[in-house]
Description:
By secondary structure, the protein is an alpha+beta fold. The protein is 23% helix and 18% strand. The longest helix is centred in the first third of the chain and has 17 residues, at 48-64.
Amino acid sequence: MVQIGNPSNWLVFRCAPTVAYAAARMGTMRRPSALIDTGRYPIATMGQRRNDLVASVRTGLADDGCAVLPGFLSTTGRRELLAEALEREPRAFYNPANEANVHLGDGDPTLPDDHPRNRFLARTNGFVRADEWDDSTHAKRLYDWSPLKDFLRDCLGKDELYVYDDPVSNMIVNVQRTGQEFNWHFDTNEFTITMLLQPADQGGLFEYVPDLRNPADENEAGVSAVLDGDRRDVRTIDLCPGDLQFFLGRFSLHRVTPNEGATTRLLLIMSFGESPGSVGSVQRTRSLYGKVTDTHLAAASAPVRADALVD
Ligand SMILES: O=C(O)CCC(=O)C(=O)O
């Protein structure tokens, strides 16, 4: 974590109540840079300040698999991105099954009942799909903005970074209304950035266990321990609106606790990968987003993954 400083206290205090932005749009299309507080985060300008930012994120990711840049979005960015999310939130998809395992996938009848693959936990959140945003939206323009991708690539120390190729889930909003939660799980894509647009008044906290699995080891015993309530390695973050969070969700088990307040929690998620062509599995995509495309069906026979982990 970048900004927290004191690893013995992973629960960051809840931010002051934010202005409840009206959904009214400004009617003006902003440059992507206007959505970012570039005074504080000059990500598009090469130089020492950018280098320092990159170094601080790298340290957070190396130490904890997670880093936060507080107040990354400008006031305009928070307003515009929240307005777009609020407009689409009524069309979020909720899976009536209301439960999922850590792979957000099917169980396996050949494995014991207490194997992580066969342990299903409450998952009641919804998602606004990527195809709800066309290329003219602020969120999509920011996702496709090269200086942001270049900054992320440098923060990750990668030679190249690709927008996650999944047309249904590469840029989504996690919607958690009162009482809703997102169970412990791993991600398919290697790397995600999130931007909190509207927090829960109570609850709705992001929790994670860094590096619980790695490309060579699913660490089923470690996963089972967390599911059984072992909180020794659990870290909790209470994000503020406009914060940018870097997260290596393929290896760190993570969840969002139930929203215990009256305000719907809305979080924008942008996913990236080290290799092109990776998309979610047909089962997982249908279950989470209620839809698959020809791209998912075509990729099913030869999935592109950087490792052999269960999705
Ligand atoms: O809503 C969040 O903070 C986390 C979303 C999440 O778990 C994910 O993107 O996999």
